[in-house]
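Dissemination and training. As part of the outreach component of the grant, students in the summer workshop were shown how a complex can be specified as a set of sequence lines and then modelled as a single object. The example used during the hands-on session is reproduced here so that future cohorts can follow it. Participants entered these lines:
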Amino acid sequence: MITAKNLTKSYGKTTVLNIENLEIPKGQSFGLVGNNGAGKTTFFSLLLDLIEPTTGHIKNNGIKVDNSEDWKPFTAAFIDETFLIGYLTAEEYFYFIGELRGQNKADVNALLSNFTDFFHGEILGQSKYLRDLSKGNQKKAGIVASFIGNPEVVILDEPFANLDPTTQIRLKGIIKDLATNQNITVLVSSHDLIHVTEVCERIVVLNKGEIVKDIETSAETLKELEVFFAG
Amino acid sequence: MLKHFITLQWKSFFRAASLKSNLAIKILTIFMALYLIVVFIGAGIGIYYLIEKAEIGNPFDVINKYMIYYIVGDLFFRYMLQKMPVTNIKPLLYLPFKKNQIVHFSLGKTILSFFNWTHAFFFIPFSIILITKDYSVLGVISWHLAMITIIFSNNFINILANNKDSIFYPTIALFAVLGLCQYFQVFDITIYTAILFDSFYSIPWSVLIMVSFVIGLYYATFHFFKRNMYLDAGLKTKQTIAKTEDLSWLNRFGNLGTFLKNDIKLIKRNKRSRMSVIMSFAFIFYGFLFFSNSISVYEGPVWKIFAGIFISGGFLFSFGQFVPSWDSSYYPLMMSQNIKYKEYLNSKWYLMVIATLVSTVIASFYLYFGVDAYLAIIVGGIYNIGINSYMVLLGGAFIKTPIDLTSSKKAFGDKQSFNLKTMLLTLPKLVLPLIIYALGHYLINPTAGYLFVALSGIIGFAFKNYMFKKIEQVYKKEKYKTLAAYKQTN
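and obtained this result:
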């Protein structure tokens, strides 16, 4: 589904990302881990064509993301709060995203009804704009918005950060379901090794912009990662 | 302790992102300040002689008479422009500073504000002139001190009244009505207030009342401030109660409607954008300066077109030129969503066109100044729709100043909404139609001038698809730079 070839991103002389070859097949739940500055968000931003690659390119379903915009209809993401429109209520935001993705209100409502547990009564029907919600609730809204419109690729940057334990557990269930039952390619980055190992079939470790490990998740994976990061 | 406060203040000023990036604007602001100072000094020196020459009464009496409006005007500008001292308090709260010290420092900082000492440039020369004109020295000093205390009272009143629109606007409305009453000689409030201001001169000790008043006000502000210095009280960011709005009647416009709905909410729900709409409404009345012949410079025929462009295009200029910037806080979302630039731009274009049409209709009261005046506005409107709407969208691609919609910074007169590039981009929008008109006016006749301007607008309108394609290309080319620029919010 996603292939990166000779992909580098440099600012001046410092190279922040250097991926020679990376392939993510369709329907895989893919985890990206690494310390701060490892290049996780840079990779996601490149994938969403928010920054320009210095060399190389990324293909999403065969479409070069920096050449054509045809990857947008089947790709959804939540990176940070810049993906939220602060002056809208959660409902308005969901409907807006829905309309952009060709979903009417009923479609969006049907989707949202699956997430009543996840929202825990704090998102819908609130007399608050998104900008006035807590960080955790903003994140919930952003994550769910990225599921609207049957995307084939979902990109979530640090989805577990700022969430309460109950929501973290629910989110893990949701992400697993996306990949296994709906054949959606899910890309997740995290600092939390336990969460990623639970959720992802495959984990790639980035260090200073380079891939240092590419593991198929197994019972030993968590140990292996802990040993690596204890360094 | 004070040392800490001052070094923090120092660093916050010199390390502000805006200082580095916008040196030209800083310089411009300094020039503006210098200009104001010169105007104030000039007024302070000149007003005595001007009033004397105009023979509308004893200069000192006249000043006292209109002083009430000066003071209300000062309050108005403070409310609109002066920043509140609450910024940067939050990180200090849990540090070992005494709360009293923080409050004293914050209030003390406002005393040094430009809004206070700029008045000195008026009152000091004026008081000196009064003394040279054989007014009693003691009286003048007393009067002068009273004026200073009033200015400082305004300073504290403004802090107390901050963001209380429910008090502010009725007060301003009241004084506007009083002003009108005076103009139409129904009721003259200044008869009563003049006595008050005069008494500061004639009864020198009365200034002590004012001094104790301002000291009292300081402590009232102090206590108000201190009592509210909690995260969930005075330092709380204002939250408005949100209502989900449907606006589904816009659905008939398809994808365009999606964006229009969003833009309407954007304008309604954010202070910054609401301000730009109010500004554009003010622009409608700008024409009085031209058509009432009150300013002789504006009497040339070409200026009518200038006025027409401004009257019909207030929204176009104040909102339109920041087009992608309004969406800066969620631009990454827009760029990764399933959005066609064309639809996005089209929605903004329609907003501008609708606003231009509405302004043109509202401006029909200019018919009072003759058909010729209103014709200039209609022609200006056509030009705005046909040409300036593209220019504005094109310019927006290069401006790239992120707009913080929720910022408590006052929108009006904010450095962010005013920079050199926007000024430069405004010029062709205004100068070109003047030249086109002048060609017709001087080569053939005034009607031909109007026709030329209108025709250029219509031709522009006809090329909409072509122009949009060009603008789209520019937006695409600038995409990464724009995204990077929007990331750098202060």
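Chain B touches chain A through 30 residues (CB under 8 Å). Students were then asked to discuss how this feature might be tested experimentally.
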